[in-house]
């Protein structure tokens, strides 16, 4: 019997990816790729669609820092039937907006049957600030990271949370031009880089699945809104997709030698293929996997602000134009067929 065919789909966050740089617009790619893999490992930036989400039964929702540690062979992934998800709320969220997020959690319990803990509010506002780098990529800072960590510790120790959904109050005075570009399907998500900072800190500290949803004041309707950004305009909160993703996110195995191995556990040496934008190949995950017996597939149509190609890093890859072509390469690879044997050479 052949072992399960495992692929990783990466779309780095905050770099203006043409596909995956908006509100869950990489979900169609994930859905179709999942049809030709036994296991698809990907991250919240790919699967989060604000009020929209899609249950892909063979997909594994892995936060970016955890994905890097997995690819490096330091952590493993253990699939679960469900997680008890803790909700961590920023004290800086105004009462009405706080209520909206608590009602979203209630809806997830009542309508989706998710297992959520009591929520915890940080003991000080997190004071998130947003930044744009010289390259145009987004990032950010947390004014009170210790408060974030204390709240997470309460959720883990007192509420027995097995995964953490964070909602931090993000500034409303975001660069207007950047915001308009994003809502029109251009430019960079100005929130994404700061979101990654928050989730990375919690995963690194507690080795627990985590994802973030920003709290923002509702924006006025935009008549020329891009369909790729529209999922974020459907409600008062981006929390639903995060709760759904975390409910089945795999747990991290951080001490392989001290943990009884299960047949379902996944390790980096079991990854068969990794897919990434052609000019964004500098991620830690891809660099680690390029050192293993793993097929690298890069997609030229998925343009980003970053200009780091596989050839520039000395990484051997198969370059294709679209995610539709990725599917063909994966099917051939899974079947043990050299993809180039299917191409007429000239």
TrEMBL record:
From what superkingdom does this record's organism come?
Answer: Bacteria
In terms of InterPro entries, this protein maps to: DUF3326 (IPR021763)
Q: Which Pfam families match?
A: DUF3326
Q: Would you tell me the protein name for this molecule?
A: DUF3326 domain-containing protein
Lineage, opening ranks: Bacteria, Bacillati, Cyanobacteriota, Cyanophyceae, Nostocales
């Amino acid at each position: 019997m052949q072992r399960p065919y495992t692929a990783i789909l990466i779309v780095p966050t905050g770099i203006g990816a043409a596909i995956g740089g908006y509100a869950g617009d990489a979900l169609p790619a994930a859905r179709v790729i999942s049809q030709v893999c036994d296991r698809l490992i990907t991250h919240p930036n790919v699967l989060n669609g604000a009020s929209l989400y899609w249950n892909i039964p063979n997909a594994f929702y892995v936060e970016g820092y955890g994905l890097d540690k997995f690819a490096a062979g330091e952590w493993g992934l253990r699939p679960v039937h469900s997680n008890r998800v803790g909700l961590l709320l920023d004290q800086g969220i105004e009462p009405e907006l706080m209520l909206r997020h608590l009602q979203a959690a209630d809806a997830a319990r009542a309508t989706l049957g998710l297992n959520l803990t009591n929520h915890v509010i940080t003991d000080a506002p997190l004071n998130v600030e947003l930044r744009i780098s010289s390259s145009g990529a987004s990032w950010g800072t947390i004014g009170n990271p210790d408060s974030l960590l204390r709240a997470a510790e309460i959720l883990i120790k007192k509420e027995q949370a097995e995964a953490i959904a964070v909602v931090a109050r993000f500034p409303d005075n975001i660069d207007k031009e950047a915001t308009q570009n994003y809502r029109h399907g251009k430019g960079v998500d100005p929130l994404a880089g700061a979101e990654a900072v928050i989730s990375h800190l919690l995963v690194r500290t507690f080795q627990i699945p985590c994802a973030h949803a920003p709290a923002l004041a509702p924006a006025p309707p935009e008549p020329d809104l891009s369909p790729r950004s529209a999922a974020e305009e459907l409600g008062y909160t981006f929390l639903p997709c995060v709760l759904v993703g975390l409910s089945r996110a795999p747990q991290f195995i951080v001490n392989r030698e001290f943990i009884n191995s299960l047949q379902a556990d996944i390790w980096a040496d079991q990854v068969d293929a990794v897919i990434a934008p052609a000019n964004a190949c500098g991620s830690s995950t891809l660099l680690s996997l390029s050192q293993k017996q793993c097929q690298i597939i890069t997609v030229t149509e998925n343009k980003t602000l970053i200009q780091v190609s596989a050839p520039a890093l000395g990484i051997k890859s198969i370059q294709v134009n679209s995610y539709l072509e990725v599917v063909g390469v994966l099917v051939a690879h899974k079947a043990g067929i050299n993809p180039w044997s299917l191409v007429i050479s000239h």
